[in-house]
Design a protein that fits this description.
Chain lengths: ~625, ~280, ~325
């Protein structure tokens, strides 16, 4: 989990509004080579209080740099529209002359490429002092003194000031650029990708420096970056930019812990950091063409929960619930696919011939609540007998609960009519532990995979054949007639489990529940199959509930982990947190028991050697 | 200016004027009213229907001289341009491909040649080699090839460093194959626009040499016409310069400009990345 | 100083090549032009015995080649460049009287063309894309490519013949005596005006285009964006930053194209009958005056090479990135 920021004490007055941006648009006209104008920024609005730090996060091409430049009036005339108010003064449409007193003195910019930000023919110290001499009219020696003080603050020595830009290292130039930006003591400091291209240690030092500087100067900060770690440490609020539009705004710690927009969620999942062991997962699809953005919501082609309205209408940034969170999504953010509340299931152990007494009852599941969001992978972990399989069956609707609700896509399973249930069957599918048990030995592969379609009477027989074939391809199996004619006993365990998955996919479900899908396979098959499940899940935008006892395995694919013991859920949370900082003692014991290879030092023949052993 | 698929205005202007001159040169025999060497009239006649531009001091028709002059200019231009590009490509290609001490030596030679002042060297060479169209063409090519060699060498080196050339060698392609399949097509456009630009400079040089009296005295070049015109005492004080001095001067200028604009247009057209700033 | 060694070595090497080419050319070409001068049967035969004796002594054709080379080199270094056939004077003396005029002409023109090119090019680049810029660029191409003698002719006709404002020929009024320095300067200046103007026009086209293109590419650099973001006034952006950076390739260009000015000077001096080196070599060619031709070539090459060297040095001073070894 990314570390949240600690509140800093600044000199600024947070009740005063420093910057107010409304409906900012930056459109670059086409130059004859392409079809349309490049809509770099398309209606962006946000506020910045005096002394506040706001992060603007987005990928390359999202329009972040264009926003920064617009705030200094650096775009060609006529391309910027909307309103930018700096302490009440309107900046859009100002003539070049009028910009001069504002630039650098009120708003300063530190550009992304520090390497090329300096004029190669003048010394660094001269360039840092240049705006002071021009704007503040300082005599050279006074300017020199201030330049030296500034550079000391950022950690530069006098010899750096005397040098030419090409004689400085990348990190030194970064700091020099920061000093230059601070030279006229601006009200607002804009940093465009300050940490890009630097190694991890340099980044950490720079972030520490920026925190110090911010505290001392009290200037407002606009941090534009795709470096989420830097944003986490430096800003109080964050705004996420996608294809020129803001899609989520809120307090930094909250947004990073619990993103509510599908894009933000996908972005965080794709961000490499040391606390997760989960493999990186990109967001399917690609960034939109800035000259021809998608209709309606810009993210809808890649969104797993898009509905018809998303294709037609563009969502506006609206407050989500109470508190300071704003989201641009017709559905109000990430949807909950499946929610279980206080589920309860009791089994009788007396053979069921007569009503059971208290002693003869077993509570397999008690007060279990969990949630699976759109496109999420949730792992339900526990020992044998913890009740996880029962819970899985309850969620899929194979068993009826004795208490509590299961709500799937807003539909309560208990109150659903027969027809509704049948429709639900299509959307939520189960893959069981033992494929030989779950698949009839009499049917051929083709018939097995086609079965759900036959039951639901979907389409014509020829269509069903085609769908079956596609599903088989998706799981990496052959579609040759010879293979399609095989029976269960002619296939290996791994192959058969794939057939089972294909069968589950053929109805195009929204949620796949996999109960110990790989525990009966050997290691190599396990790895391949888990990866396959993950791939399919990502590509199709399905939710996946993975039920397993193998914590080490699910750690590779899960977004969130739910730990179950004796029918109860004892812990749940983001996978990275549960693994790194488990809160419940049981979780800790599970972690300890999980297989781990450790290096131990042993003496062999008078020498100390490192050996690989198991801590089991 | 210069959209992909559309010819730029430079190219349109240049090519049309070039086509005009080429037509004049080819059809000279048909278009010119007289043989330019023939004494078809009195000396220094004023313009008349028989002699639209009058006659020169020897009694030869100026218009015919002008028309035939196109042949000379274009012949020298083409010859010198081909020579320049051929020599330059050879030397530059070898230097860029082989590298090592040979490259160093050749480039040293190129540097020296490029530093020397052109015209005095031209004059020196022509004085010793004698006047004549062939000599003029050869000498112009000898002077202009170093610049082409530099550019070709740079391009060849850059292409050789590219990944796809390395890959081709990986597949077992020899230097000959690489040259044919990858390098030549890549530098092809460069050579074409270089040819045209070199032709423009050759026209200027040839006319200049003729003007100075170093050209072929038997070839009725535009430069020579200007020289004879200026030799006439008091030419500038009468109107005579209008039909004797101005037309050849304009023709030389126009042809050079046509070639220059064509060269610029070609560069922009063939290499869209060099779009005019 | 140690940095200069490779550059000096290059300079000396080129100088040596010039000297050697100068030496070899008349001796190796077909038709044996030197022998022709001394052959009574040949049309180029030199009748004046005194001149013929001087020629024989200077070229030393009866000696073995290496000895000739040694004597030639010694002569070149000490200033003995032979004797003019046509004028029966030492070549060195002729050059001494003619060189200053050429330097005056080319110096004036280069300075003017550079200044105009720098100023005009920067302004045009600042306003790139506007119609003013496009017109200037086209004008630059035309001016740079129109043959220098043609431009000179037109100017001569207009200002000299038609309007009579300026003299038609010469470096100064023939047989003039000057009582005061200002009078001398005025007369020389009047004669200098048209030739210098013509040469300037020819040179300015190329320089303007070069500066404009360089400044345009500098304007696209990141540091220009930062400079603008710093709120610096337009004046400072244009001159202190944009042009200052574009100066570097410009000076390099100056060095490489020093010979261009000489080429132009030859044509102009011929056209305007200006008493410089160009006129000298032109007249020498007509008379097959080989010692003069060779002498002029040698001296002009040396001047160009030296200018090159100085420009290179200036470039290093201007660009801090080149200052380290």
């Amino acid at each position: 989990m990314i570390e949240a920021i600690v509140k800093t004490e600044t000199k600024a007055n947070p009740t005063v509004l420093l910057l107010s941006v409304r409906d900012l648009r930056v459109h670059f006209p086409s130059d004859g080579r392409q079809d349309g104008a490049v809509r770099a920024v398309d209606s962006v609005s946000f506020d910045l209080a005096d002394g506040e730090a706001l992060g603007i996060v987005g990928e390359t091409g999202s329009g972040k740099t264009s926003v920064a430049r617009a705030l200094l009036g650096l775009h060609p005339p006529g391309t910027t529209q909307g309103s930018i108010r700096l302490a009440g003064q309107e900046l859009v449409g100002l003539p070049e002359q009028a910009w001069q007193p504002i630039r650098w003195q009120r708003v300063a910019l530190a550009v992304q490429s520090a390497g090329t930000a300096f004029d190669p023919v003048y010394r660094v110290g001269e360039q840092i002092g240049e705006p002071m001499r021009v704007h503040l009219g300082l005599p050279p020696d006074e300017a020199q003194g201030r330049v030296e003080a500034l550079s000391h603050r950022v950690g530069l020595k006098p010899r750096h000031l005397r040098a030419y830009p090409h004689q400085l290292s990348g990190g030194e130039k970064q700091r020099a650029m920061l000093a230059m930006a601070l030279s006229c003591d601006p009200d607002l400091l804009i940093l465009d990708e300050p940490t890009s291209g630097q190694d991890m240690l340099a980044r950490a030092r720079l972030v520490a420096l920026l925190r110090r500087v911010r505290q001392e100067s009290g200037a407002g900060l606009l941090l534009i970056s795709h470096d989420l770690a830097a944003v986490a440490r430096l800003t109080e609020r964050v705004a996420v930019l996608y294809a020129g539009k803001l899609i989520e705004v809120g307090p930094t710690a909250e947004v990073l812990e619990r993103p509510r927009h599908p894009y933000t969620w996908g972005l965080l999942n794709a961000y490499p950091n040391m606390t997760t062991a989960r493999d990186l997962r990109g967001i399917r699809g690609g960034l939109p063409d800035p000259t021809d953005p998608p209709s309606g919501c810009r993210f809808h082609p890649r969104c797993t929960q898009a509905v018809e309205r998303c294709r037609r209408e563009e969502p506006s940034l609206k407050r989500a619930g109470v508190g300071e969170r704003w989201i641009a999504c017709h559905l109000g953010g990430l949807q909950t696919l499946l929610r279980a509340d206080g589920l309860r299931k009791v089994f009788a152990i007396n053979g069921g011939t007569r009503p059971a007494s208290e002693e003869e009852q077993v509570e397999a599941v008690r007060e279990a609540s969990l949630e699976v969001l759109e496109g999420e992978v949730v792992a339900l972990v526990g020992e044998t007998g913890s009740g996880k399989t029962t819970l899985g069956r309850l969620l899929v609707g194979l068993l009826e609960a004795d208490g509590g609700h299961v709500v799937f896509e807003g539909q309560d399973l208990a109150t659903a009519s027969g027809g509704e249930r049948k429709a639900l069957r299509r959307r939520i599918q189960l893959v069981a532990q033992d494929p030989f048990d779950a698949i009839s030995p009499r049917l051929t592969v083709a018939e097995i995979v086609r079965e759900p379609l036959d039951v639901q009477k979907v389409g014509a027989p020829a269509e069903r054949e085609e769908k079956a074939r596609q599903a088989l391809q998706a799981v990496g199996l052959s579609t040759e007639p010879a293979f399609l004619a095989r029976h269960a006993h002619e296939l290996s365990g791994g192959q058969l489990q794939r057939v089972a998955i294909a069968r589950a996919l053929v109805l195009d479900p929204k949620l796949l529940v996999a109960d110990e899908p790989v525990s009966m396979l050997d290691a190599s098959e396990q790895a391949k199959l888990i990866n396959l499940l993950k791939e399919i899940q990502n590509a199709r935008g399905m939710g996946l509930l993975l039920i397993s006892h193998d914590l080490a395995l699910v750690r590779k694919v899960a977004d969130r982990i739910v730990v179950m013991r004796d029918g109860q859920i004892v812990e749940e949370g983001p996978a990275s947190r549960v693994i790194a900082q488990p809160r419940h003692a049981y979780t800790r014991s599970l972690l300890q028991a999980a297989p781990a290879f450790v290096w131990e030092s042993e003496e062999v023949g008078g020498e100390n050697i490192a050996l690989l052993t198991s801590q089991l | 200016m210069g959209r992909r698929g559309h010819l730029g205005s430079d190219l349109v202007f240049g090519l049309s004027v070039l086509a005009l001159f080429a037509a004049i040169a080819l059809l000279a025999g048909v278009m010119a009213p007289y043989d330019p060497h023939a004494f078809s009239g009195q000396s220094l006649e004023q313009p008349s229907p028989a002699h639209p531009l009058g006659t020169n001091d020897a009694g030869q028709d100026i218009l015919s001289e002008l028309i035939y002059g196109a042949r000379i200019s274009l012949a020298v231009a083409v010859g010198a341009a081909v020579g320049t590009v051929a020599l330059g490509t050879l030397v530059g290609g070898v230097a860029g491909t082989v590298g090592g001490w040979l490259d160093g030596l050749l480039m040293r030679l190129v540097d020296v040649l490029m530093t020397l002042p052109r015209l005095p060297l031209l004059i020196l060479l022509t004085a010793f080699l004698g006047a004549g169209l062939a000599q003029t063409t050869a000498v112009i090519a000898l002077l202009f090839w170093p610049a082409t060699a530099r550019v070709v060498r740079a391009q060849v080196q850059s292409v050789r460093r590219r990944g796809y050339v390395r890959m081709a060698r990986n597949f077992g392609g020899g230097p000959g194959y690489v040259l044919r399949r990858h390098i030549l097509p890549q530098i092809g456009p460069l050579l074409v626009s270089g040819l045209v630009t070199a032709a423009g400079r050759a026209v200027a040089m040839e006319a200049g040499l003729a003007f100075l009296g170093l050209g072929d005295p038997t070839a009725k070049s535009w430069g020579l016409m200007m020289r004879f015109a200026l030799n006439l005492p008091g030419l500038l004080l009468t109107d005579r310069w209008l039909w004797w001095l101005l037309p050849p001067g304009l023709c030389v200028t126009l042809l050079i400009l046509a070639l220059t604009f064509t060269g610029m247009g070609l560069e922009e057209h063939l290499n869209p990345r060099l779009r005019r700033l | 100083m140690l940095r200069q060694v490779p550059r000096l070595a290059s300079y000396l090497l080129t100088l040596w090549v010039v000297l050697t080419v100068n030496f070899l050319l008349p001796r190796l070409l077909p038709g044996d032009p030197l022998a022709a001068l001394l052959d009574p049967q040949n049309s180029d035969y030199v009748f004046d015995a005194e001149v013929r004796a001087a020629l024989e002594s200077y070229y030393g054709l009866d000696r073995p080649l290496p000895v000739q080379y040694a004597r030639y080199l010694a002569g070149a270094v000490s200033g003995d460049l032979g004797r003019s056939i046509r004028l029966n004077q030492p070549v060195g003396k002729l050059i001494r009287t003619h060189l200053p005029w050429t330097l005056l002409l080319t110096g004036t023109a280069l300075t003017l063309a550079s200044l105009l090119g720098l100023l005009g090019g920067t302004e045009a680049a600042w306003r790139r894309g506007t119609w003013r810029d496009r017109v200037l660029v086209t004008a630059g191409v035309v001016a740079g490519n129109a043959p220098v003698y043609f431009v000179g002719m037109m100017l001569l006709i207009l200002f000299g013949a038609r309007l009579g404002w300026l003299p038609l020929a010469g470096g100064r009024t023939p047989f003039a005596h000057y009582d005061t320095l200002p009078a001398a300067v005025a007369d020389v200046g009047k004669h200098l005006l048209l030739p210098a103007l013509t040469l300037t026009l020819t040179l300015v086209g190329g320089k303007f285009l070069l500066v404009r293109n360089n400044v345009v590419s500098v304007l696209g650099e990141d540091f220009m964006l930062v400079a603008r973001a710093k709120g610096l006034p337009e004046r400072r952006l244009k001159w202190a930053h944009a042009l200052r950076n574009a100066l570097l390739p410009f000076v390099a260009h100056l060095a490489a194209h020093a010979g261009q000015a000489i080429t132009g000077a030859v044509f102009i001096e011929t056209l305007f009958n200006y008493p410089g080196m160009g006129r000298l070599i032109f007249e020498a060619v007509g008379a097959r005056d080989y010692p003069v031709i060779q002498g002029v070539f040698l001296v002009v090459s040396t001047v160009v090479l030296t200018a090159n060297l100085l420009a290179d040095e200036l470039n290093t001073r201007l660009d801090p990135r080149l200052r380290e070894a």
